Amino acid sequence: MFFLKRLRRSRLARREFPPMWRGIIERNVPFYRMLSLPDREELLRHTRILLAEKYFEGCGGIAVTDEIRVTVAALASLLLLHRQTDYYPFLSSIVIYPDEYVGERRRWDDAGVVTEGAELRVGESWEQGTVVLSWRDVLLDAESPDDGFNVVLHEFAHQLDLEGRITDAGGFLVASPWREIFTREYEQLLADDEAGRETFLDPYGAESPAEFFAVAVETFFEMPAGLKEHHPRLFEALGEYFGQDPAAWGRGG
Fold this sequence. Notes:
The protein is an alpha/beta fold. It folds into two domains: 1-143, Orthogonal Bundle (Cyclin A, domain 1); 165-253, Collagenase (Catalytic Domain). The chain contains eleven helices and eight strands. The protein has a four-stranded mixed beta sheet. Strands 3-4 form a two-stranded antiparallel ribbon. This is Zinc-dependent peptidase. It comes from Geobacter pickeringii. One of its GO terms (molecular function) is aminopeptidase activity. One of its GO terms (cellular component) is cytosol.
């Protein structure tokens, strides 16, 4: 089975990338224009394979188009550059809403009491093999590749976490020295958030180790120079993990 999967992917990667799809990426994914030519070609290969292997489903009245599929797959492929990958093996489907949608949320207080309620969401990642995204927010985030927020990168970072067992409810599982760095940075963000201090990283990362990792990944790609300045060891650890240096990309357009 593994051999057949590799053979199928190799054949897909050798096919010419449709010019219409490339045009979608050039319009909707500014990161693409920042990459070197070899990295652009690698991203296109990953995009084609993701499009062949993942099922897209529209909800809330939206019809899934090539623009939606290609944009999401290209952004998700950014996290796969320079790495051996099995293409988000726990992910089978990507659900697209036209805008924010209502999801159920559970909260546990210090006494262990559970509070349930509805909330508006722009994305989520499930262990059962699904990523859910608001198309409006996918586009808005993609148009601003330097504001620290990207719902596709965030939710697909959760899938990388699931695949690599980077975190669990108790903390970080990755081998040292990443575990030490991630733990120290997470605990500092948690302390700063509880004290009401301003932070460079989005304080949403203080919610849990898993959210910290996803927020850190967003920031690594969206605001690499700032992350390198304010959290140099975290930037270095993520650079080793991804084999990339977004701070060196040509961000002038």
